[in-house]
Amino acid sequence: MRSEPFEAGCVEILRACGEQRHLGIMVGNRDFLLGDTMLQACCAHRLSDPTVLEAFGQRHLLIHGDSLCLADTAYLRFRAQVRQPEWQRAFLAAPLEARLAQARRMREASQAHQQQQGPAEWADVDETAAETWLQAAAAHTLIHGHTHRPTSMPFGGHQGSTHRRRHVLSDWDLDHGHPRAEVLRLTSAGFSRHPVDA
Ligand SMILES: [Mn+2]
Fold first, then answer.
1. Chain-wide mean pLDDT for the chain?
2. Which of 3, 29, 129, 184 has a CA 20 to 30 Å removed from the CA of 123?
């Protein structure tokens, strides 16, 4: 495995953590090709998307979030394509430089798309679909990221359920206009949000 300095630094930090505690990684829309070799290097375990977390007598549904942004139809078409094993085999068979160049083009296209829209128009999780998933998982808390709008709030209520909550994880961006970087912690006392020290 070729190591870039930044990625190698990330692996080192994750491994130091993974050697001390159970470290689970759920891939998202950018890192969906993360392989088992990388996870082993990080002492990490793969979390399927979604995953039910049982902790302190409660069930929580962990999901990346992209698959629930049903209004983002162009992205969902792209997602269906790149999650196909044949597409992934063909992509991974290309030389590394070609793959990096393609990933850069995809990221630039995604950023251009985001800038055209403005935060208020960014895709958000479809609440009805999320409630269906919560019911199927017999969970009351939904934890997801992806939408760049970190918050904790009551959620749903379509089926007369008022006690559901949704925790939207923060992405980590300390380099641009609107810095944000938080972790969500769950203890026996409940959920709490903590800023990451830059
Ligand atoms: Mn995402």
1. 90
2. 184
| CATH code at 48-71+123-198 | 3.60.21.10
With a threshold of 0.70, does the pTM exceed it?
yes
What are 21-46's pLDDT values in tens digits? 999 999 999 899 999 999 999 999 99
Q: Which ranges of the chain would DSSP assign to H, the alpha helix?
A: 5-18, 36-41, 73-82, 85-93, 96-117, 127-137
Tens digits of per-residue pLDDT, 153-196?
988 765 555 578 999 999 888 888 778 899 999 999 999 999 98
Among 131, 194, 132, 137, smallest CA distance to 163 is for: 131
Ligand 1 centre to CA of 5 (Å) is 23
Q: How far is the CA of 27 from the centre of ligand 1 (A)?
A: 9
**Cα–Cα distance, 76 to 84 (Å, whole number):** 13
Q: How far is the CA of 171 from the centre of ligand 1 (A)?
A: 9
Cα of 31 vs centre of ligand 1, distance in Å, is 9
